[in-house]
Amino acid sequence: MKQFLEGSRAVAEIVKLCKPGVVSAYPITPQTHIVEELAQMVADRHLNAQFVNVESEHSAASVVLGAEATGVRTYTATSSQGLIYMSEVLFNIAGLRLPLVLTCANRALSAPINIWNDQQDSISLRDSGWIQLYAEDIQESVDLHLIAYRLGEDKSMMLPVMVCMDGFILTHGIETVEIPSQEQVDKFLPAYKPLYKLDPDSPLTIGPLADPDYYMETRYAIEETLKEALVLLPKITAEFSRVFGRTYHGLIEEYRTKDAERVIVAMGSVCGTIKEVVDELRQKGKKVGLLKVVAYRPFPAQEIYAALKGIPKVAVLDKALSLGSFAPLAAEIKAVFFGKKKTPAVISSFVAGLGGRDITRDSVKEIFRLLTAKERQREFIDLKPELLKENYE
Amino acid sequence: MFGPLIIKPGSSRNNKTGSWRTEMKPKFLRKDCIGCKLCALNCPEGCIEEAEKGAYMCDYGFCKGCGICAVVCPKKDIVMTKEESKEEK
């Protein structure tokens, strides 16, 4: 049914339809009201789940880790400092192969304190073993949660999935959203049947000490499984498209790139703005396009190669930094083409929208304007040089 | 693909901790044993059992050679001796 919903509310609705048995969250800043809605649903008995309020995000992640290990579907959400505070547990959840789903409402990291959107929080956890999917709009955020549970809980995967949606832009924006019926969801997402679980009647140990004789194989196994996820995710999204009638391409989305001469690569909600600018510039006869990266982990290197190999000029837009080195997405896009025969003549790196600074249509046009034969490294868009003149000596 | 994350109960039996033993191992003399059981109760590996009435013995497959049994024995009926050869482990 089509509903006019705020992003957080829409995500709460779809999570409810996924029927998690345990939801745990730290209820205060930097939380979104996704879990507030879920707590209300549990209180109103619209969702038959245990809602565990805890004293920190570290505890929230620990609660869902423990609950998931007993074989129940679980859910949590956080963002920014909360995600970073969870990080120790998040590595454990992936290492223990517990396929829970977490919504990251992407926000900047302190200091200075800033509650607005960029993608530094989840990007900083790219090495945790979690699958990371980035949504462009609220509808995609909703749909990715269904896909996330299906993907993570697949018997060949058993890995946690982080659905990343831009804080405020998507979590607090309001859109017309199609929320599927319970029957549709049940058909697409059957009840969770774990491969193994903590059960007093059939005791086993999950996650014991692994000395140097055993540890490396556990990491290798995650690495190999994430490669398999690159094959499985498109299959699941294809099935999703058949069932729900909304088309997703799984790993990446190419927008008017076929004959494009200049293409921007980006992730998340900024892709919507870029599409509008692409349409506008196309009307003026400029051959531009967008490559949207949906799956950041696992990183779809082959698909990105196929999509960009014939494009003369590529701009990579990062909403996060790896301070002191190349911007994260740009570094990986360049790595895709290292040593390849067919490669874009220019791959320029741009940084924009940090700490919630709006990436406007003009910002996107500026990127296309600066995407010339001269390769740019971490070119900051919409920077205010006048703010850099403070003198503390 | 999965690594070795899940352990069925009882798997510690597969870990022959006796291989950790370096130089010394306990010898159960069985001369003055009064059956007080202190050696078995104090063994951190739990590998000492009453082999026959009033006579205790450890399983060298798991004995790490820590020597606690020899120290707690009130009759000095357990002594630490030099490990003879690797095969005996």
Could you explain the architecture of this structure?
The complex is a heterodimer of chains A (393) and B (89). Chain A has 393 residues and is an alpha/beta fold. Chain A contains 12 helices and 16 strands. Chain A has a 7-stranded mixed beta sheet, sandwiched between helices. In chain A, helix 1 (7-17) crosses helix 2 and helix 3 (57-69) runs parallel beside helix 4 (80-95). The longest helix of chain A has 30 residues, at 215-244. The relative contact order of chain A is 0.11. The model of chain B has no long low-confidence stretch (mean pLDDT 88). Chain B is of the alpha+beta class and 89 residues long. Classes of the chains: A alpha/beta (393), B alpha+beta (89). The A-B interface holds A 95-97, 158, 196, 203-208, 210, 214, 217-222, 224-225, 228 and B 1-9, 11. Strand 9 (205-206) of chain A pairs antiparallel with strand 1 of chain B, so a sheet runs across the interface.
